[in-house]
Amino acid sequence: MEQLPYSEKVMDHFMNPRNVGEIPDANGIGTVGNPICGDVMKMFLKIENDIIVDIKFKTFGCGAAISTSSMVTEMVKGKSIEEALKISNKAVAEALGGLPPIKMHCSVLAEQALKSALTDYYKRQGKEPPFKFTEHTHDEH
Ligand code: FES
User: Fold this and answer.
1) Most Cβ neighbours (<10 Å): which of 4, 24, 46, 53?
2) What is the DSSP code string of 16-39?
3) 12 C-alpha to center of ligand 1: Å?
């Protein structure tokens, strides 16, 4: 077998990403980008009574970004916001069977997109999010 730097799970989520698309009546939408590679990710959330009942994403990004976003959406769907916030990018990478170190930053993009969408959800409710989120999108200085 040829040695690929990616696990079977990474390849599976890259070839058949779950939860790709948009949610027309989303109540939390977040977009983040990585200024270095230029990849962009958009996440849509449908939250009811603090539960993430639906989640979808769209990305203009690399394979690792697609795989990690796909995995994140599977991991947080049906969970409460509180539980979803406990899922770190490392946990996502582990669930995928690991990522090459050079690709770990791609998993950060997925985590950031989720946080950004949750921040938007709280803003729409007129509330402060119960976590700290600093957008890296415009972080070019
Ligand atoms: S190289 Fe940009 S997110 Fe992976």
Assistant:
1) 46
2) S-SSBS--TT-SEEEEEE-TTT--
3) 18
Instruction: Check 106, 113, 117, 118 and give the catalytic one.
Output: 106
For residue range 72-131, what is the model confidence (pLDDT) as tens digits?
999 999 999 999 999 999 999 999 999 999 999 999 999 999 999 999 999 999 999 988
pTM assigned to the model: 0.90
Domain count, the chain: 1
Question: Does residue 140 fall inside a structural domain?
Answer: no
Residue closest via CA to ligand 1's atom 4 equals 106
Q: Which CATH number covers residue 73?
A: 3.90.1010.10
**Structure token digits, residue 44:** 């849509």
Assess whether 62 carries a catalytic annotation. no
Residue 139, domain member (yes or no) = no
DSSP β-ladder status, 28-33 and 51-60: unpaired
106 noted as active-site residue: yes
